[in-house]
Amino acid sequence: MQKLVTGLVVGVVSIFAVSAGFALVQQMTRQFTLQSLGANDISVEQALLVAQGAIDACKKDNSVITVAVVDHEGGVRFIMRGDGASPEMVDNARRKAYTARTFRQATSAWMERTALDAVDEKGKPVDLNGQRFLENTIAQKGGMPILWHGDALGGVGVAGSKGGEEADEVCAKAGVDAIADQLF
Amino acid sequence: MSHMSLMLKAAAAAAVLMIAPQAAQAQSSSSITSEQAMAALRAVQAYAKNEGSDPSLAVIDRDGNTVALLRGNNAAPHNLGLAQRKAFTANQFKMKSIEWRDKTKPGTPQAAERDTPNAIPLGGGVPIMVGNEVIGAVGVSGTKGGQEGDTAGAQAGADAAAALVRRLQAQN
Asked: Quick one: which H or E segment has residue A134?
């Protein structure tokens, strides 16, 4: 009888110990296997350098620009409206940055690709014009992606330079080049 | 007689010409420059660095239009929009948004002011003052000190911008 009780107690305790150990191991494995996405995103510091690079480039012909830097998700990281620029310029620059980021190419290239008469390398028509109807995009030059290993960390958009959209794009490119040493 | 009236007309025209630029001057201070906005941004960043936070901020001009926006590296999705609304509130009601929050508590006669589109009864918006004049506002969201901390950060920014405006005025 004594033996039976002891055996029963030992049995219950060992079942409890084994299941507790199992739960602990399970919990630990879960902790080590749970892997959330680590997005490479443009930082505030980088965004300020990009914007300054674009502003400085556009100063050469005394242009006062509005510049926007969007992040990996296309959201605003930094915007600065140029002195005397109309309020609409803010959204104009932001949409250029967004378009470049989301399609991972200069807005000028995207405009060619989404034109009604666009053709691919073999001369076959590509009908991507519908992309221009996506929210937040804009078919204007002056947006450049900030690329890193094939993905876009963000995008920069420039509006309001004296030389028009062509010059906007040159300044936007200068902005990206300002952090080129970080984008190897 | 005709000489006299001609002289009078000339004098009147001269007077109009002299007054016109004076009258136009009132409009010239209407917007915060990018340099002033940048000074505000740097001051908010300095405040944040001191406490180790990473806030988002907005600088708007007296018309309520965006001059500068910055979203912190680890900002929550609502932070930037909230900073904009705080700045809007401070500019619109010409007081800190934390004061406006207290002034418009439910049950007070001013409570209905809280229905103003875009306004928000949360601390962190501070008007940029030059003398008694509000020339824009700074809104901050995401410091460590809650609404009081956001207000202190925004105040640092507004002070920095106002200092530059005053320096510019002293030069002219």
From this structure: none
